[in-house]
Design goal:
Chorismate lyase; 6-stranded antiparallel beta sheet; alpha+beta
Length: 255
């Protein structure tokens, strides 16, 4: 048992449910990384004996922690610490991946898997309004949060809009920041579509998940200040680590 549990003391003199004291203790130490992602949690009966509480008390705490994304139960293996899913807001506002991760207190990192100039093909030609003679830069990136791979992204950008982009350091520098500072390309608006899919062998290996594990598949077309599409991206997010967060408001004309 992790020595951190020695700090877990049940206070029976306060009007706070015992299970809730266990739950808040666990959340505090998961969020400050004292209990690390993937760490095995002591069995219910062991915590019951240590804290001198009933099994339903510990079970209630664990059930709520599982429901809120702090614990993950795996049959025949046990209960493990996990971080709650990242509640992505990027389907309703424009921000970079780095900005989003930093907002949630996570350390972003990008690994550039490949970058090359290729001939355009039908799907990209349609999305970016190009001709058969155009070429695009194709870059593949694996993006991390706190050193855990969370999303694989394939991006297409017209060469004619940003010649020389292929030579930029897009592991250390933000793609959008580079496009803005060096090519005067700023995002004016975007179109995103969200699909459900599963991981093929290639993505399961990259993302460190089981083959056929669920993924959020998000396509993006970004338009610049002149309403010209300059980016088409295909992103595969781990569904066990990411969720979409959307706020909806009643239209003022709705009756």
């Amino acid at each position: 048992m992790n020595s951190i549990y020695e700090q877990l003391k049940i206070d029976r003199t306060v009007p706070i449910p015992l299970y809730y004291q266990i739950k808040t203790f666990m959340i505090k130490h998961i969020e400050d990384n004292s209990l690390k992602d993937g760490e095995l949690v002591p069995p219910e009966e062991e915590l019951c004996a240590y804290l001198n509480v009933s099994r339903p008390t510990v079970r209630q705490a664990f059930l709520e922690l599982v429901h809120e994304g702090y614990l993950n139960r795996i049959k025949s293996k046990g209960t493990f610490v996990t971080r709650p899913k990242i509640a992505g807001d990027f389907i309703q506002k424009i921000q970079t991946y780095n900005q989003e991760m930093q907002y949630y207190g996570l350390k972003p990192k990008t690994k550039l898997l490949s970058i090359s100039e290729i001939d355009v093909f039908a799907e990209v030609m349609e999305k970016l309004k190009l001709t058969e003679k155009d070429k695009v830069i194709c870059l593949e990136r694996l993006r991390y949060a706190d050193d855990k791979p969370i999303v694989y992204v394939k991006t297409f950008i017209p060469v004619k809009l940003c010649k020389g982009l292929i030579d930029e350091d897009l592991e250390q520098n933000s793609l959008y920041d580079t496009l803005k500072t060096k090519y005067n390309i700023e995002i004016a608006h975007i179109n995103r579509q969200i699909h459900a899919t599963v991981a093929d062998p290639y993505l399961s290996d990259l993302l460190g998940i089981m083959e056929n594990a669920p993924l959020l598949y998000i396509t993006t077309v970004a338009y610049n200040q002149n309403d010209i599409p300059f980016e088409y991206s295909l992103a595969s997010y781990r569904a066990d680590m990411y969720k979409m967060n959307v706020d909806l408001y009643k239209d003022k004309f709705y009756k």
